[in-house]
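Figure S7 source data.
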Amino acid sequence: MDLGLQNKTVVVTGGSSGIGLATVRAFLADGANVALCARGADRLTEASDALQAEFGAARVFSSAFSVLDEDAVQAFVEATEARFGGCDALVTNAGQGRVSTFAETTDAAWREELDLKFFSQLYPIRAFEPLLRKSASGAIVAVNSLLAYQPEPHMVCTSAARAGVQNLLKSLASEFAPDIRVNSILLGLVDSNQWQKRFEARDDASQSREDWFADLARKKNIPLGRLGQAEEAARALVFLASPAASYITGARLEISGGVSRFS
Ligand code: NDP
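C-alpha cells for the predicted NDP complex:
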C-alpha cells in the first residue's frame, strides 16, 4: 500500500532511540523527510549521521533540546520550516515513565511527571499547529500507554498523567478537525532503552536477556507471549501519521500484544 508519504515532512520528538528512532527510519524508508530531536546531543548526532548516510543528508534534520523548553521547540519549528518548507505530520514520542507507588510519590515528583506528560505534548503541538494547518494532510500522532486506561499501582502518577493526556487528545481531535487529524497509540510493553535499563538492574545477574524478557512477558500475561519491538510500534505510528489514514481522527490504536483488559 502506498501511504502517500513521498516528499512529505514529518517531525518525531525523542527520535534518537527506541520507538522514536525506529519511527524516523520507517518514515524515511517510505519517502518522507524527517526532523527529529532529543536532549542528548551525542546519541542524536550518532543516529542522525547513520540516517543521513543511509537515506541522504538532505532528508534528515536533527536538533538537540528538551521538548519542555518552549523557546527551543519554537526554534525547532522555524528551523524545520527553513529546511523542508513546512510540516505535514508530528509524532509526539519524547518521554519516559516513572516507577513509583502513591505512597512513594512526592508532590515534586507529581509535578515533574504531570509537567513531562502534558508539556511534551502541548509545546510541540502548539508550536507546529500553524505549519500542520497549512498542510493538505496535517496529522498528529501521540505515543501514549495502556496505563491511561489500565493503571498500574507501581506507576501511579505516570498512569494518571497518561489518562489526562488521552483526554486532551480527544479534545484536540475535535478542535483541530477538519484541518489536522489527531490520533494516539497505546503501548503495552515494547523492548527499548527503558526496558533494557530495567534488565540491566535485574536482581539475578546470571539471568540471560532472553530469559528475563520471556519471564517478563509471562508475568504480564501478554497473550502474544513476548514484548513488542520498536519497529512494530513504528509501523502503527507511520500509518496513522500518513495520508493513508485520512478518515481516522480521535482514535487510539493499541500496540500491546493483546494485554489490554478494557474494551
Ligand atoms: P527510549 O528511552 O528508547 O526513547 C526515548 C526518546 O525520547 C529518546 O530519544 C530520548 O532521548 C527522548 N527524550 C526523552 N525525554 C525527552 C525530552 N524531554 N525532550 C526531548 N527528547 C526526550 O524509550 P522508548 O522508545 O521506549 O519510549 C518512547 C515513548 O514511548 C516514551 O514517551 C515512553 O514513555 C513511551 N512508552 C514506552 C513504553 C515501552 O514499553 N517502551 C510503554 C509505554 C510508553 P534523550 O534522553 O537524549 O532526550
